[in-house]
């Protein structure tokens, strides 16, 4: 057999396989596209202080199809001027996905609504800078204020503290946070593995790879008919959060609770050094206000172990002892008859407007804004 014929018999099967793979990929793309089951969210990048943050000038999208776009500062917000123009009163808002405005339009998120309703005709110009990042917790809020806050020249810092997953979290150094690869949040161990980058590239660009991974595409929009309508994903997420309302936290829970309170104390010290005021807005979880959800998550014989005014009572007492201003929204949201958490586990736009109005009223009543 000649050398050319040997090469032909070697190359032909390889080419045939490649052509076959290409045809399958095209066929899947045209007739049975397999969507991503990686998170649909903002586009993230690694950060030395907070673990990860929004990549400046990046774009992603939420499960609802709404654009998730970051400005040149990495904020889901309009551009702002640096240095701050004369006569502007600026509020730096820190928080997690509730503050970012997950699954709703950018203009509907409570920081943006707050800016709108604070600005009155012929009044001073007030800007609210939305620096929230989904999945962050008190350590990351504090690190962001410490390392990036001063450039925005804020007059006031406001933290949206979500009790569902901000309190009982063991995250007190950058090494304990997640990182990001190609816009996706991943564990630090996975981020250091070069194979992660290859897997993410393959996953984002190949229907075949997504099929082989056998990851079911999740509809993370959690469409609900009413306040008592829950699917398996919703219940799984809320079950992870139910321990936040243990009546008597002890052991590891107490350690994490105290650690995150200490982070808020550290944030107050940083605000003092910057010469600005700090306000902590305590945001409740649906587990605290929805009795139908509580019945799904807690056996009747275990109800006595829970106190659905916790951890707010503990947080309020700690902040008061430290001289840190706080606004607890549990009673306001609990007394509202609307289904405000009908946007997966987040608020619908009406919930964001309610929160913005409460913050506005507090700021004005306490002389924290001009």
- Range of helix content: 40-55%
Major beta-sheet overview: 5 strands, parallel
String of helices and strands: HEEEEEHHEHEEEHHHHHEHHEHH
Task: Summarize model confidence as the mean pLDDT.
Answer: 90
Number of helices: 13
Could you give the order of strands across the largest sheet? 6-5-7-10-11
Shape, please?
globular
Alpha-carbon Rg, integer: 24 Å
Given helix and strand content, the structural type is: alpha/beta
End-to-end separation in angstroms reads 90 Å
Beta strand count: 11
Plain-language structure description:
The chain is α/β, with parallel strands linked by helices. The chain has helices at 3-31, 97-100, 110-118, 138-148, 188-191, 194-205, 207-213, 232-241, 251-274, 291-297, 312-322, 330-335, 349-365, and strands at residues 44-47, 51-54, 59-61, 67-69, 88-95, 125-130, 156-162, 179-181, 184-186, 277-283, 325-328. The protein has 13 helices and eleven strands. The chain has a five-stranded parallel beta sheet, with helices on both faces. Helices cover 41% and strands 14% of the residues.
């Amino acid at each position: 057999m000649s050398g050319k014929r040997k090469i032909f018999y070697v190359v032909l099967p390889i080419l045939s396989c490649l052509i076959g793979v290409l045809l399958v990929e095209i066929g899947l793309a045209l007739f049975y596209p397999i969507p991503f089951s990686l998170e649909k969210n903002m586009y993230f990048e690694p950060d030395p202080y907070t673990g990860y943050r929004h990549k400046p000038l990046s774009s992603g999208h939420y499960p609802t199809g709404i654009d998730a776009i970051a400005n040149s500062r990495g904020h889901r917000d309009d551009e702002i001027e640096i240095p701050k123009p004369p006569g502007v009163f600026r509020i730096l808002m820190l928080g997690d996905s509730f503050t970012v405005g997950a699954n709703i339009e950018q203009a509907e998120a409570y920081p943006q609504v707050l800016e709108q309703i604070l600005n009155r005709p012929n009044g001073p110009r007030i800007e609210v800078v939305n620096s929230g990042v989904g999945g962050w917790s008190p350590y990351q809020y504090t690190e962001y204020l410490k390392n990036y806050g001063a450039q925005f020249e804020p007059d006031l810092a406001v933290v949206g503290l979500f009790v569902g997953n901000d309190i009982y979290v063991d995250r007190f150094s950058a090494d304990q946070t997640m990182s990001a690869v190609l816009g996706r949040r991943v564990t630090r161990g996975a981020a250091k593995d070069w194979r992660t980058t290859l897997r993410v590239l393959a996953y984002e660009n190949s229907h075949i790879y997504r099929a082989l991974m056998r990851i079911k595409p999740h509809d993370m929009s959690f469409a609900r008919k009413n306040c008592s309508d829950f699917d398996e994903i919703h219940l799984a997420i809320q079950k992870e959060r139910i321990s936040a309302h243990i009546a008597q936290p002890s052991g590891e829970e107490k350690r994490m609770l105290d650690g995150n309170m200490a982070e808020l104390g550290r944030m107050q010290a940083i605000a003092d050094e910057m010469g600005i005021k700090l306000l902590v807005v305590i945001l409740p979880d649906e587990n605290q206000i929805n009795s139908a959800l509580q019945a799904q998550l807690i056996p009747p014989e275990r109800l006595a172990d829970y106190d659905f005014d916790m951890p707010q009572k503990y947080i309020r007492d700690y902040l008061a002892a430290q001289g840190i201003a706080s606004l607890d929204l549990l009673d306001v949201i609990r007394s509202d008859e609307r289904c405000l958490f009908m946007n997966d586990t987040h608020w619908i736009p009406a919930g964001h407007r309610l929160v913005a109005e409460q913050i506005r009223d507090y700021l004005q009543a306490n002389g924290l804004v001009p």
